[in-house]
Amino acid sequence: MSLTPKVTVQKPMPEDLRALPRLKDSIPYLYLERGRLTQTKNGVVYENKLGRYAVPVAQLCALLVGPGLSVTHRAVVTTTRAGCSLLWVGEEGVRFYAGGHGETRKAYALQKQAEAAAAPERRMRVVERMYELRFDDALPPGLTIEQVRGYEGARVRRTYAEAARRYGIAWQGRQYDRFEWGNSDGANRALSTANACLNGVCHAAVVSAGYSPGLGFIHQGKQLAFVYDVADLYKTALTVPVAFSTAADAKAAREHGEPFALEKEVRHRCRQAFRNLRLLHRIVPDIQAVLDLDPSAPLPERFDPDDDYAHPTAWWEPPPEARLSAGDGAYGERPDHDDLDPGDPTADWMPDGPAAD
């Protein structure tokens, strides 16, 4: 993404995260490398050998930190307080190393995600809804997770083959070695680059909405498992056509002896495709849909964690049906002392007033 060489004054970052722009109104991402990111009196600034540029962190969804970019502590604080996720990635954004938090300090979305992931039946319903949202087609009832993955793999391979035929690409399947990047064909490199961009935006949306990137439903065992689940919802509509069309243009440019920066062009086209599809408007509602969450339901909170990040946390309480009656003496209101059994190990208090003889 190109930056206009103009320094603009940025307003101080608010402590109340609700005062920030909403995620869906943000710029999807910005990739920076080989320079320095610092905090000045005018805001966060990126410097390299070509000049000095203001970075609109309050309007960014994710800032991808590439090789050769040094970041000051103050710049990190300002960026994350602005609700912009920091993602440390490899060259051209094709590998992910680490990430920072997003726009909320609430944990209720994470609790609901964990509840759905921990119950096998609810987990399978989430997997089925993900498949239906991705392919606009219902699965046969009673499938195992392995069978669902088989259905998904067949649909994805068919999507690749159809895209290759459409754009005139010789396709031998999804094959690449991330340690031998240059040995992969153009279509595979374009797919990897496009998917890395999509993963970065989905990661930012996941953490900004308060979900866990590592608590996946189809993918498992990695810190970005849920990010991969969410990103898969959009690959057919976004990264597959972008990758194959760009690979076709790169092939045509090569045949005419013209230069063509494949990975750079893929990133530019991805950014435009994300905006055309209004991706940031869709990710969080789609997550709520696959997890079967009601966004209008009131939260069981006594304070808003986004008001004050240093405020002590609320107490956990069991649901009403799990609470013991007052007469049980273990939960609820204190029982009358006449009902207290002195031999009861739960009787760890004495009635008010002077001790009895």
Task: Give a short synopsis of this structure.
The protein has 357 residues and is of the alpha/beta class. The protein has helices spanning 73-81, 108-118, 120-135, 145-167, 186-208, 225-232, 239-255, 262-276, 279-290, and strands spanning 27-32, 35-40, 43-48, 51-54, 60-65, 69-71, 85-89, 96-99. It has a 4-stranded mixed beta sheet. The chain has a 4-stranded mixed beta sheet with strand order 4-3-2-6.
Question: Can you describe this structure?
Answer:
The protein is built from nine helices and eight strands. The strands form two sheets. A four-stranded mixed beta sheet has the order 1-5-7-8. The protein has a four-stranded mixed beta sheet with strand order 4-3-2-6. A hairpin with a 2-residue loop joins β3 and β4. α7 packs antiparallel against α8. The longest helix is centred in the middle third of the chain and has 23 residues. It is flat and about 75 Å long.
Q: What descriptors fit this protein?
A:
9 helices
Order of helices and strands: EEEEEEHEEHHHHHHHH
Shape: flat
> What share of residues are in beta strands?
5-15%
* Major pleated sheet: 4 strands, mixed
Termini Cα gap: 82 Å
Classify the helix fraction into a percent range. 25-40%
Low-confidence stretches: 4-14, 16-21, 326-357
Class derived from helix and strand content: alpha/beta
- Please count the helical segments: 9
Based on CA atoms alone, the radius of gyration comes out at 26 Å
Number of strands: 8
* Average of the residue pLDDT scores: 80
- Lateral strand order in the biggest sheet: 1-5-7-8
